[in-house]
Amino acid sequence: MKKIYYILSALFLCVVATSAQEAGKTVVIKTNVGTMKAILYDDVPNHTRTFIERAKRGDFNGTLFTRVLPEFMIQGGAPDSKNAPAGAKCGFGDPSAEIPPEINEKYFHKKGALAAPRQPDDVNPQKKSDMSQFFIVQGKVYRETELDTLERTANYPARQKALKEFYAPVRAELNMIKMSNKREYQKRLRMINAQIDSVIQATPGHLLFTDEQRKAYTTVGGCHHLDGTYTIFGELTEGFDVLDQIATQPKDQNDRPKKDIRIQSITIE
């Protein structure tokens, strides 16, 4: 029995060690218009491991960036793009390359986020990732007021519901307190606001940007509407100019660049 336990423990340690070795790796994406570098995250281990395996096999080498959308993202690596004729529609998904999602709330779609594409929710409600390809976010820079408006719009129904429950019944009383005891009024108001915030945060689909998100989206930019729906497994560290160059290429009606942007190699350092 002890022997079996030791064997299982050894196997577990091997798996942990392998994951640790894969985490924090640098990815070098060499294209015919320049090179980008990215790091891989250690807390999305299945995506990191799968991406590394495919890169080491050379699966991405010779493929194209098949979708380029300025102020959004660039997508490439699809197997069917390797020998695609000029102008042909390509970049279709590969169901055999799908893996379960590892969506981590601390990662968001700032510029340079490296993520896995997937089929839409109506055919893929589990949000499984298609690891046969990848996308890199370019996005846009938002103003603080834009983020405020996005929050208000998304949270409006929940806020109205909370106001009706917590504020409307005591509104007349609060107005009287405001005239006679401003300190008590402020205290009561803080309590009501906390109750309203708790309702909003408990409502599915609510939107509250963190300080980190606000800083990123108002400086480098990104695509906030993708947050929580795709698995991000890394981020660019170099080559943002190459990202911009690819994202702004002239493209056809299928968003494929008119001039092929080819992935010459993806290597792991």
TrEMBL record:
Q: Where is this region: Disordered?
A: 249-269
Per its record, what are the GO molecular function terms? peptidyl-prolyl cis-trans isomerase activity
Comp. bias intervals (Basic and acidic residues): 252-262
Q: What UniProt keywords are attached to this protein's entry? A: Isomerase, Rotamase, Signal
Superkingdom of this entry's organism?
Bacteria
Domain PPIase cyclophilin-type stretches: 31-268
Q: Which InterPro entries match?
A: Cyclophilin-like_dom_sf, Cyclophilin-type_PPIase_dom, Cyclophilin_A-like
Q: Which residues cross the membrane?
A: none
Signal peptide from the UniProt entry: 1-22
Record EC number: 5.2.1.8
Pfam families this protein is in? Pro_isomerase
Give the protein name, as stated in the record. peptidylprolyl isomerase
Organism for this UniProt entry: Parabacteroides distasonis
The uppermost taxa in this organism's lineage are: Bacteria, Pseudomonadati, Bacteroidota, Bacteroidia, Bacteroidales
